[in-house]
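Per your request, structure below.
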């Protein structure tokens, strides 16, 4: 199986996007403190120690991470729902977010390159189902439950 990249600050996406290229795969976005350690997020079944804000897949990881970066830094709607949700959080709760997070934390991402769109979709589904099982809900910026008709293997885990 493929390996995760190291966590990187979202501000480094322009350099990293060339390394990622147009590869299919999955990504995770998290909140980290100034020391680059994950910030715990309270969830229904207890804290998410990794501070994951989003789990996703793309046929072009470089482009997807750039879209997220642009939604976060440019202050406008982009081409992806996760980035748009983050933008809305910033607009609706800007002063609270800026005080609590933006000045005291980093958004970070990591990616796992895979061989195909189908492999990326399957891995995203597995990651989201495992997150849901562990935390009782999806990461804050994810909106859609993965294949609700096929949970037997996750329930039995």
């Amino acid at each position: 199986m493929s390996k995760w990249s190291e966590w990187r600050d979202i501000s480094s996406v322009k350099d990293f996007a060339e390394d990622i290229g147009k590869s299919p795969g999955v990504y995770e976005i998290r909140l980290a403190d100034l020391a680059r350690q994950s910030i715990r997020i309270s969830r229904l079944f207890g804290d998410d120690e990794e501070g994951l804000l989003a789990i996703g897949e793309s046929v072009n990881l470089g482009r997807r991470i750039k879209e997220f970066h642009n939604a976060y830094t440019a202050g406008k709607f982009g081409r992806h729902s996760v980035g748009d949700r983050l933008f809305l959080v910033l607009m609706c709760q800007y002063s609270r977010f800026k005080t609590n997070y933006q000045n005291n934390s980093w958004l970070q991402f990591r990616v796992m390159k895979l061989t195909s769109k189908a492999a990326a979709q399957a891995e995203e589904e597995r990651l989201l189902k495992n997150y849901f099982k562990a935390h009782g809900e999806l990461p804050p910026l994810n909106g859609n439950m993965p294949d609700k008709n096929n949970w037997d293997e996750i329930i039995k885990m």
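The chain has one domain: 8-155.

Regards,
D.
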